[in-house]
Amino acid sequence: MQGLTTNPIFVGVAAMVIAVLSTLGVRAFAHKFGYVAKPKTDRWHKRPTAMLGGVGIFIATAIAYFAFVPPTRESLVVFGASAFLFLVGLVDDLLNIRPYQKLIGQLIGAGILIISGLKLPLTGYDIVDIWITVFWVVGITNAINLLDNMDGLAAGISAIAAVSLALNFASNGLTNELLLASAFIGALVGFLVFNFNPASIFMGDCGSMFVGFLLSGSVLLNQVGGRSRGIVAILAVPVLILFVPIFDTTFVTVLRKLWGRKASQGGRDHTSHRLVALGLSERTAVLMLYGFAVVAGALAVLVAQVGPFRSFGLIGVFTVVLVIVGVYLSKVKVYEGTDEEQAANENAVFAFLVNVSYKRRIFEVFLDAFLITLAYYSAWALLYRNFEESSSWPLFLQTVPLLVLIKLAAFLAVGVYRGLWRYTSVSDIITFAKGVVLGSAASMLAVLAIYRFEGFSRKVFFLDAVLLLLAVVGSRMAFRLIRQVLPATNSGDKKTKVLIYGAGDGGEMLLRELKNNPEWSFEPVGFVDDDPRKHDKLIHGLKVYDGNGDLADICREREVSEMLISIRNLPAERMKTIRIACDEADVILKRAHFSIDPVDVI
User: Fold this and answer.
1) Cα–Cα distance between 495 and 504 in angstroms, integer?
2) 3-class DSSP state of 562
3) Which of 45, 69, 273, 286 is nearest to 160 (CA)?
């Protein structure tokens, strides 16, 4: 029995069962006494929902902790401070206290940790490390609070983060801390049974403050006794474990400040809301963010096992991907009206930022500088073992600034920065290849002239060129990939289903134009073409139907409202046949062209 109660899986399952039972009781209590969240314009739920779900999470975690986890001084401090934050949140749920009062409570909780010797030993200067720890604890606590904006989101992301934290505890041999994390995971999963879409109970501030503080405080347990002295373990691992709430909080704060809104006020402009605005269901949006959390958590486990420079490379790639996703999501309109335009007109600094964001040239240059460095480092690391400890490492450090400048100049010379990412095509890839070849050749000549190529290898420069080309092409294609993975912006209007007549270059171009302009409210459902070689083929996932068959039946089968002609010189006799078929199926026939109004009625 003793071995069973110290098994992390048993502790987690026990906590989950307790959480299910306690949440059922709390939900009944909340409905009976009127502690329910009513729908508001700046909130996402559409029906009155029970509050105080955090009480169930707290009860389950507390019972499992004191029943199964051998307490240590440090874990008692973290749990005690988290319990204090639970009480602060509970008072807010019951009495609605002011934000500054909650902040004071968070600072008191952080002070309890610091007085007990728990802090992030990042700089070696106590006063600096203390303030970094305060910022970390308060920031993560509020990040979880802000993330609690859609059914199952905060609880699920926190559970995934706790799993990553548990794996780090296990790898460091911290058994007691692992059991605490297991109890916490079980409590969150048990609550998630009732909180996942459609949620019947919300965690409230008592839940989000307890969960956020316990997560941020538990990270400090990895630093006790100097067990995690590496810069990656101290900084990168905890940030990755909680990457999604950090990303969402930063994303929302920056955008709200730019649009002239208070960062602390509620709203429907979080990452999850923007994914739903793109047309995803609430469940799909939450599951997609779960996926990001899993990737970040797995990366946290990985970077703790590899060298610091490889870790920074992995983290850099992941960050670039998230930044690109953030840039794409920032363009999604989540509020009606013209607040954005008014803010741009009234604020010159904001207008400048919007202009820079639109052109994206500065971002591209910084991104390419990072990609050039990463590709050059990766080429060395792939060809030489223990690269950072070899005689080649000083050569890399000496030449990387030179190569960055040379290759950026080459990119500028061939026109890499003239294109728009959303329209990246084969011709652009050829341009990228020219820039990479020119930059690599110039770099080799510069290294030959300055260092006489002593200690360098041609293989490094060849592999560097290949990796850089893949990186540049991949980054430019990212927007097109995101547009394929995510649906177009959902305008809320019913889409008009259309068939495109002509499965050639004109039809394919028309399809892309319709997908790139969702405000036109067209939904292409397929192609029609007279060429028998194209029948039943797919173009961007849409089927090509036989133009010589019964067009009226095709239109009725696909519930088509309009047919768009993409062929410029269609014979008059064929046009007459198509018009008769469209009249029979009560379908509007239009000829397509590319302008503000993309089609004309024939």
Assistant:
1) 24
2) strand
3) 286
- CA distance linking residue 363 with residue 236, whole number of Å: 23
Supply 431's token pair: 């341009």
Q: Where are the alpha helices (DSSP H) in 415-502?
A: 426-451, 458-485
DSSP for residue 233:
I
- Are residue 467 and residue 533 in the same domain, yes or no? no
Q: Are residues 30 and 143 in the same domain?
A: yes
Q: Which of 220, 246, 213, 269 is nearest to 318 (CA)?
A: 246
User: Where does a domain end: 433, 461, 483?
Assistant: 483
482 burial type by CB count under 10 A (0-12 exposed, 13-18 middle, 19+ buried): middle
For 132, 140, 265, 337, 539, the CA distances from 262, given in Å and listed in that order, are 24, 19, 6, 18, 46
Rg (CA), the chain: 29
**Which pLDDT score, from 0 to 100, does residue 17 have?**
96
CA gap 270, 215 in Å, rounded: 21
Residues 6+ apart with CB under 8 A from 602: 565, 575, 579, 589, 590, 591
Do residues 393 and 514 share a domain? no
Q: Within its chain, how far is the Cα of 84 from the centroid?
A: 32
Q: What is the mean pLDDT of residues 170-177?
A: 88
Asked whether residue 315 carries a pLDDT value surpassing 50, the answer given is: yes
Q: Are residues 512 and 448 in the same domain?
A: no
Are 140 and 57 in a shared domain? Answer: yes
pLDDT reported for residue 43:
57
Give a yes or no: residue 306 inside a domain.
no
Q: Confirm if 522 and 585 have CB atoms less than 8 A apart.
A: no
**pLDDT-derived band at 353, boundaries 50, 70, 90:** very low
Helix axes 99-115, 126-147, angle to 10 degrees: 140
Residue 336 has what pLDDT? 56
Statement to judge: residues 16 and 155 lie in one domain: yes
What's residue 597's pLDDT? Answer: 46
Residue 499 to residue 564: CA distance in whole angstroms: 6
The DSSP symbol for 596 reads S
- Tokens at residue 31, please? 């409905």
Q: Which tokens go with 575? A: 């046009």
The DSSP element (H or E) to which 496 belongs, if any, is: strand 496-501
Tokens coding 508: 């394919």
Domain containing 467 equals 360-483
- Looking at the fold, whether 181 and 81 belong to one and the same domain comes out as yes
Could you check whether the bond before residue 198 is cis, i.e. omega within 30 degrees of 0? yes
Which pLDDT value is given to residue 82?
Answer: 96
